[in-house]
Each structure stands twice: as structure tokens, then as C-alpha cells.
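Review the following:
>
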Amino acid sequence: METLINAAIPLAFGFPKFNTSNKHRVKPRTVRCLRKNDEVNGLFEAPSQMDLEGHAHMKMSQSPESDPDTKHNEIWQLFREAQRNILYLNKQRLMAVEELKKAKTEKEMLLDRIQKLEEENQADAGKDKLSILWDLLLRIDSMVLKGMIDTGEASDFRRLVMNSNAIVADVFFDIMQRKDVELLAELRHFSDKNKRNGFHIVHICTEMVPVVSVGSLASYVTGLSHALQRQGNLVEVILPKYASLDLDEVQGLREIEAEFYSYFNGQLQGNRIWTGVVYGIGVTFIQPVHYSTFFTRERLYGYPDDFERFSYFSRASLDYIVKSGKQPDVLHIHNWETAIVGPLFWDVFVKQGLGGTRIMLTCHDFGSQCLEQPDKLALCGLDSSRLHRSDRLQDNTKGHLANILKGGVVYSNKVVIMSSMHSKASIIHSLSHGLESTFTIHKDKLLIAPYGFDKFTWDPSRDKFLPENYTADNMMGKAVCKVALQQHLGLTEHASVILVGCIFSEVSDVDLENLKEVVLIASRRNVQFVFTRLSKVPSKNTSLDSFLEEIKDENVRFIDKCDEALSHLIFAGSDIILCPSFHDPMLQVPLKAMRYGAAPIAITSIGKRFRHVVDHDFQSTKLSQFLNTTFAYMSLNEALDEIKSNSMQWNQKIMDAMTKDFSWDAECYDMHISAYTALKNL
């Protein structure tokens, strides 16, 4: 609004004396408030000069002697009206300023939204290109199985895709729907057989997030594969085609129009091949034809014929790799379920075009090793008389049985033991479950690697589930998240109150009586608690349910069903996260807690105090060393005391933890790349 003010305003501290003669008559000026279109403001319309003079003349005609007080009052009236108009204009100006601020805020929000949409579009474009690449790789596999190309040409094509993936995606974008013959002609025309720099890794495994997940293996395979591909490596995964697969998570799932045969139980058995893309990773599913019930069961593991099931899958995976012409740098196998790949590879397959391939075994759990009668090795084509020896597959304790996991250790070129908190020495001598002598012999090929987490999903600086984002340099958003969590839980809302989250998966090693005592003591110090389960597997732990029932306190809440959004808010809103253990391969709670500025405090009990069993051998992971020097020695009460008495030191610990990278892309990736490089140089 454009306003014109033309007013005569008397001095604030008095007025001049006015002469009542006509000669010196004071003519009041016009006070007008005009809009931009020159219309008079409706609030006040001042009289014109002629009107005022006529009014004054009428008064004088009525009274021959003009009254000075009357003129004085008229001027005061004009002054007050002018003041009212000025106040109105100021109010209008303030409203205009607020409107401008609001428009500016809306503009910034709109620009931010546009930027996010552009980023999403770019991400979608990246996903589309990755899907094209994997579709092309899977079409190459199909061409080999159909006999259209030989294994050598297929290997060259795969190297081309790996080395020039961005260009390949653009070139083949419009021709992927063509027939195989036309596509093959284009591939041959485009191929320049460039040498690649990255590794070609094939995982032969039984789990992978998100399609099938029971234990820590699933998140490890997906997380590590993503990290490897982000650095230019080609990663493929081979899985059994379970009946319980979440096929909605597989893009472009289709059956290759060709069967291949695998040796099992003395004869060749047919298999169907399904291919697709999961989170940008090419996945091949193997479905037995004759032994169709092997992978159509309610559970993944725990059946009397588990060895038959997974030895069949392991042999079929190797047959598929050979028949499809793949020549990976590394066959990456996992736990006892695919450990038989090691003996099979070196006894049967190494001379079938895989002379440049090496074997790496990852062990997640030594508690399950699969002990079987030696003669069962013949099912998948192995000679038990050669393998049932103390330096090969014979079990160290039960000599009449074959130990399948031990065979994987013996026949692999590298063995990676996944552990976030233990050193190689402690694993060999204390946690090997009877494999100590085997590990001692093969200790030079043992590596310890920590678990990681998805730093792109778990990042407080851009977490879409949080009411306000934050970083280590600006923690204001964390206080907002705490208040939001308190509101959701119905707790007293105050950012200064210490809030402790406790996230359970399994609590078998936690003394719940001691935990209850600690919680009740801390609650009397006005500390707030929220307990929840994040495991997708329904809990059968009645002792935990009983524990939660016994804790009845206004500062304690329990959430039985915790969705993804709430789990993110718990990490962001908590000052401390109680962890059943720092070694948490399933949920990675300590790693996520540090990322979100919450101190991980272990609740593994020793007597009446809550301590983590510390491995003093610092020839372990960087993650273990950091936790041991910051939070591992600290009980909950000690943490509360430090927050109160030495807040600066506490805040520095939190900031240090937030800035450390313990994701799949950090130490875990480095350890595996180091292992792959060593394998390539063998």
C-alpha cells in the first residue's frame, strides 16, 4: 500500500498563540490518507481547507467575537485524528512486513522443496541407470545359458559394463526392449574390451535385506555390497528362491528362459533361474526342480536335512557361475551354510575356467558349525575319503563327523570374522567353539572386521522422520527431537531432563533384577526412560515382559510396537541408549546411538554394576578401540553423574562420537577391500 500523509502536526510541548483577526487567521492544512489508486482511506477523511474556513466563518457569524479556545480545540482534534491515522499506517506497515516475512519463508520452503525434488529426481535417474546396467548384465547371463555367446565373450561384455557403466546406461537405454539378437549386435558393436579397475565379487549366501532376513548376515550382505558398488566394484548375490521371499522388493524379477543342471545325489538335477535387482544389486535366485521342497518351507533353518538343502544350493551356485561364463575375482561365502563351496571349488571347479577366482569366507557365528556323517559329502560330488582328515573337514572333537564350517575355513583363501568388539586373539582362544586349533593353524588368513550401518538412512542431518535435523556442530534440533519424543510418550516436556532409551533385541545376558534396580534409582533422579523392541522377530522372552510389568513409574514408558519413524525419534530424542551389548550385529544399536548423539551404555551386568566385558587386546578394530576408551567402562549412574558434574567433557564425547564414521562404507569396507586385494595378489 502506498500512502501519502500530508499533515500539520503541532509541536509536542505547546502551541503558538493565534490571532483572531482575519488577517492572521490560521488555515488548517488538509490531512488525507490515500491509497495507491488515490482513493481516500476509509478510516479518516479530513475536511478540505474551504470547508474549514466556511466552518470558521459560520462560527464567527454566529458569535461576533471568536473564541480562541474553540480554535485551539479544533486544532487538537485535527492533531488527534492525524495521530490515529499514523498509528493505523504503522499497523498497516507492520502487517506488510509480516506478509513479506511470510512470503520470504514460503519462498525459501518452496526453493528447498524444489531442491529436494531435484535431488530425488537425480537419485531416481541414478537408480534407473543402475537398473539398466543390471538388466544388461542379466541379459548377458541369459545369452550364455541359451548358447548365443561363449563364456569368454560374456566376460568381456561384463567388464565393459563395469568399466563404462555411465556411458553404457545412456547408450543402451532405448534398446533394452529389443530381442537378444539385436541387443547382442549392439553389444558387439560397442565393446572395446577395456580393462576394469574394480573387483567382481559374487556372494553365495542364504540371506539378504530386504528380501529374506533372519540374522545379521542379511544386513551385512546388503550393506557391504552397497559400499563396494559405490566405489566402483561389481557385486552380485546368489540366493535360494525361497517360497517366503518378499518379491515386492525385487525389481524386474523374471525367470531366465533356460535351465541349467547341477550334480547332486549321483545325477544331474535341473534348476530354474530367476533374476532381479535389489537396492541396485543384481540378484540371482536358484530354484531346484526335482528337490522343489528344499526352499518352500516355513523357516529358513532348523531342519534335519539342512546340510542337503544348502549343499545342493552351494553346488548349484557354482554350476551356474561356470555355465553363465562368470569369472569373478572373489567368491564370497558365508557361515556353514555355504562353507562347502570352499572344498567344492578347489576339488571340482577351479579348472572349469575359474583359475583367477579366489574364495573368501565370512563367519558371523561359530555356535553353529554343521556336523554331519562324512559319507554325506558325496551328495554334492565330494570324496569323503580325501576330506575326512584332521587337517581338512574332520571335526576336532568328534572325529567320526565332518565339520562343514571347518572345511570352509581350511579351503578359503581368507576368512573374515565379523566382530565389533573382540580381537583375533580372544576369538581364537575364547570364542572359537572347538575350532581353536584350526584357527591357530590358519591364523595368518584370519581378519577381524566390524559391523556397520547404513549412514544414508541413519543420518540426523537429513533424517526425514525427525521434526528437526541437527549435526554435531549445531545440536539445537536434538533438543526439539527430545521434546517431540516426550510429547509422544506423555512424559514431562523439558529438554534439560535426561532421557534414556533402551532398545532390546535379545536380553539373555542381562540381569533384569539389577536393571530394574538401576532404572528405579535413576527414575528418582528425575531421569526418563523409554523401552522398546526393534526386532522384527516376535519376542518369546517372558522374563522381559515380567520385568516391564514390574516397573511402574511415571518416568518410564514401554513401546511394544515401534515403527520406523518412532525408532528414529528414540535415537534422536535420547541422551543415553542402554545396549544389551556393544556387539550388536542385528540392530547396530550402539553405532546408531553414537551417530544420533546419544551415548551407548552397555547393561551387561557384573555383580551390581553394569559393565561391558572389555577386550584389552587393542589389536582389534578401530570401533572397538573407540568404544573402549569412551563409553565401555561407564555404568549408567556414572554417565548421569558426568552429565551433571562435567557437562563440557560429556558434550565433547558426544560430538566426537557423532563425527566418527562407523558405517559400512568406513572400516568394514576398508577391511574387505584389503582382503580382496590380498586375494587378487595370491
